[in-house]
Specification:
Layout (H helix, E strand, L loop, with lengths): L1 H4 L5 H16 L1 E3 H6 L5 H19 L11 E3 L7 E7 L9 E3 L3 E3 L2 E3 L2 H13 L3 E7 L12 E2 L7 H16 L6 H23 L2 H34 L3 H23 L8 H5 L4 H11 L2 H11 L4 H13 L2 H8 L4
Parallel strand pairs: 2-8
Antiparallel strand pairs: 1-2, 3-6, 3-7, 4-5
Length: 336
């Protein structure tokens, strides 16, 4: 939605965003019709049937919006619907932001074509910023449109696909303009809790165990990235000479690479090899903080004050959404 309503974007960016969203809308097909079509390949039919099961579970058991989102399918014939560009100053782990009407300020800017994202990344890098480009498997229009399941989403395992659908529907349930950290932590928590419940209802213990093992490894990765971000933030705040700042960067990323190599040697760690193969900079650390910081606050609220009841969690979160940004930040960092 941000791509459609930005009042401060360039005309070129606004145009590509509008065209990209229109393409998604134009390619939507009703999943029920797709399943009933004899021409639909059997593997696709099976995945789409599973999607409808997930969608029904989201409304029935998780209390998520009963909208048309994820009752539709769109084949974009590419690896991702869009690519997000994240940028941070060379001596800061706080990301640059772009502000839009309705959704507020976000720590990334999306492009529906990879080459456009890469072009913007090069432009920002020429300005001296650390830059990273990340594919987005899916995105939410926050209920303004009926978001479809995309072909890129169907490359995920059932557990990760369910988590993604529950996550995006959580944005439809609640979204605080301009507070990316709060929104993403809430949606991430609900997505993960939803997967635990969905796999449990299906009695798929093997898939649940595999998903938990992946989550454990992902948590270790997140902690490494957040620890590196914290160390760098402290050094950037205290060092003054550019040479010292540059040395701190080099040492921090060398240490992080060593820690990541050790992590890839754990069972299942080979899927994290991409973190070893690519350069890492402040933009990578800024993004992980955007999506992962604060989840523990929702876990504590859910278990300690809501007795693991989602309806109670939603009530508390609704009140937090009406509070000021400082109160939400305090909550995310372990306050009350």
């Amino acid at each position: 939605m941000a791509g459609l309503v930005s009042g401060c974007a360039t005309i070129a960016w606004y145009g590509q965003a509008a065209r990209g969203q229109i393409e998604v809308l134009a390619k939507r097909e009703d999943i029920a019709d797709k399943i009933a079509d004899p021409a639909t390949p059997e593997p696709l039919r099976h995945r789409l049937e599973t999607v409808l099961e997930m969608r029904a579970f989201a409304t029935r058991e998780l209390g998520l919006p009963d909208s048309r989102s994820y009752t539709l399918y769109a084949d974009l014939e590419r690896d991702a619907p869009l690519w997000n560009v994240v940028a941070a100053p060379r001596f800061s782990v706080v990301p640059e932001t772009w502000c839009y009407p309705l959704v507020g300020c976000l720590a990334y800017r999306g492009y529906f074509r990879l080459e456009r994202a890469q072009s913007e990344a090069r432009r920002l890098a020429e300005e001296g910023l650390d830059v990273a480009v990340f594919p987005a498997t899916a995105y939410s229009t926050l209920g303004w449109f009926a978001d479809p399941v995309l072909d890129s989403m169907l490359t995920l395992s059932d557990a990760h696909l369910a988590e993604l659908i529950f996550h995006e529907l959580s944005h439809e349930l609640l979204y605080v303009s301009g507070d990316t950290a709060f929104n993403e932590a809430f949606a991430t928590f609900v997505g993960r809790e939803g997967v635990r419940r969905w796999l449990g209802e299906r009695g798929d213990d093997e898939a649940l165990d595999a998903w938990r093992a992946e989550r454990e490894l992902d948590a270790k990765l997140t902690n490494l990235l957040l620890d590196a971000r914290q160390r760098l933030a402290e050094q950037f705040a205290t060092l003054e000479q550019e040479s010292a700042l540059e040395q701190a960067r080099v040492q921090a990323f060398e240490r992080l690479k060593d820690e990541l190599r050790a992590l890839t040697e754990r069972p299942g760690g080979d899927r994290l090899q991409g973190w070893i193969d690519r350069p890492i900079n402040n933009a990578h650390l800024a993004l992980v903080a955007t999506y992962e910081s604060g989840i523990e606050a929702f876990e504590a609220l859910f278990h300690e004050r809501c007795d693991a009841q989602l309806a109670c969690l939603y009530q508390h979160v609704e009140r937090l959404s009406e509070a000021d940004a400082e109160q939400r930040a305090t909550f995310l960092h372990g306050g009350h």
